[in-house]
Amino acid sequence: MLADSDGQAASNGTERAYANGKSHHRTVPAASANGTHKPVVSTNGSSKSRPPDTYLGHDREEVTRILIQALSDMGYHSAAQSVSRDSGYELESPTVAAFRNAVLEGAWDEAEELLFGAATPEDRSNQNGNGLVLAPGTDRNVMRFWIRQQKFLELLEQRETSRALTVLRTELTPLYQDTHKLHFLSSLLMCQSPDDLKSKSEWDGAYGQSRQILLSELSKCISASVMLPEHRLAVLLHQVKQSQIGMCMYHSSSDSPSLYADHNCDRRQFPSENIIELDDHTGEVWQVVFSHDGTKLASCGGDKQVIIWDVPSFKAVHYLKDHDAGVGNVAWSWDDSMLVTCCQDRHARLWDPHTGNLIRKLERFAEPVSSCIWAADGHTFITGALDKTRSICQWNLNGDKVFDWANAHRVEDLAVSPDGHWLVAMDDRHHIHVYNFVTRELAYKMDLQVRLTSISISQDSRYLLVNHTNGVARLIDLVNREPVQTYSGHTGGDYLIRTAFGGANESFVISGSEDGLINIWHKASAVPIEKLNGHHPRCNAVTWSPTDPCLFASCGDDGKIKIWSNNEWRRSHNEATHHNHETGRSSNGWRGEMGEA
């Protein structure tokens, strides 16, 4: 657990694939992130003999040191040593290696001395005495806090409470002004056992991964020329791939692009063909949602029922009919073992989607239940309602209310981030209400100046997609609290029209439309990719398969669900489709639209 002021820094309880160095106290993967140390003449990673040179326009020393690190990461230690010997470049200096070992061995005083040298508190330069060169803008007190916090936690783990209390009072408190954080650390003094400490602090102990993670976070604050960032070559290659994916207008593959050639997807692979129509609903279809594992599809609408379809056969396996009015929304639990439905009859219901049995019906609201989502814990869910007295409530599986946000605004749609940090509510006007779901407090509220029709959050938990009645969808950065992209070209209206992220790496934004069309944009550039004839008169919702980037579904007021993919999917399912094409409609309830490929 690092200091809160670090922002995106991972906690010390987070497991990393590689340790950032070695320690003789415990087993650490041999491929350390910053390579192995060898004696050198110069320090801080500079060249031993050769003058600065270039490699195809790149600094030769930088390229060579990154290669040495990568070879060491992959376990090719002899090759790494050979490259270092032949090139005359070393990965890191003796001071860096000593600092690494001090952190991993828990020599905290030595680690601070190596990191900061003999600098006094008045010294505000990046070069701290004879210590390591820090990155510009680094707060040395925050780094000291991280080190001393680890020291404090390890003393508590060892049941040396008196020494831990001294560290808290004399070493941590003078450094940090966040009283909430200090109070939390103080509360850990009351832990009855090491296991209790680890549970409450979300920290895995001195001999878990915590020291490696601490070193990783500290290394980010040291000049990159002195201590290379972890797995630098892998990070650069990932950035190259993401850049090429970002420029690919029709990215439709979930496979990682090859490094051998520039990445480019064939437009013919993009899912723009209507391959199946499902028409078991007897009224308007308002919502359609894939399960998280992509093996089921749930649909609901004005005919008072929810239909669960098998994927990819698209056979209707269950009809959930115990509703007294139209069903406006459904939500799969994270493990797909349960389903919540929201009904205009003012009830929310919990179902077993594998048997089709009703598990529980929640108490009646004063107004229709408009939306439902599952919390990240998988054991509770949240409902949104037009009922101002209970507009946002959290429930457990027994139907007991866990928490009531007690808001005075009506809620038409809800979204929760996969990481469990954000809860966003859309009211029936033009506001979004963004809550910290951990503390349950309102983080901020945004007035978007126009009525809204739907919201959804990206898989990386960073962006909110908001659809407007004026035919515009916005991508909003939840952290920076500002719009970053706008998508236009579809039409809005007086009813809920749902938009969604989709495709490989969520490369696309897709939306229904009042005019019945399906609109798809490239997410990063907002360039329109496709405009498909969807439903008449209105396309209400779209959903992209979370496991198949070449499969999505749409639904509309025509009572149909349409499944969309490409010719390859068409060919692979041609035999089953040909049977349904000849019979018009089979017992599984869908009509093929494909014919021969």
Q: Give the strand order of the largest sheet, numbering strands 1, 2, ... along the chain.
A: 28-29-30-3-31
What's the N-to-C terminus distance? 56 Å
State the name of the first-level CATH class of the largest domain: Mainly Beta
- What is the name of the CATH topology of the largest domain? Methylamine Dehydrogenase, Chain H
By CATH's scheme, which homologous superfamily of the largest domain applies? YVTN repeat-like/Quinoprotein amine dehydrogenase
Judged by helices, strands and strand pairing, the structural class is alpha+beta
Shape: globular
> How many distinct domains?
2
The total count of helices amounts to 12
- Amount of beta strand: 25-35%
Low-confidence stretches: 5-48, 119-129, 575-581, 583-597
Instruction: State the share of residues found in helices, binned by percent.
Output: 10-25%
Largest sheet: 5 strands, antiparallel
Average pLDDT figure: 86
- The CATH architecture classification of the largest domain is 7 Propeller
- Number of E-state strands: 31
Radius of gyration: 28 Å
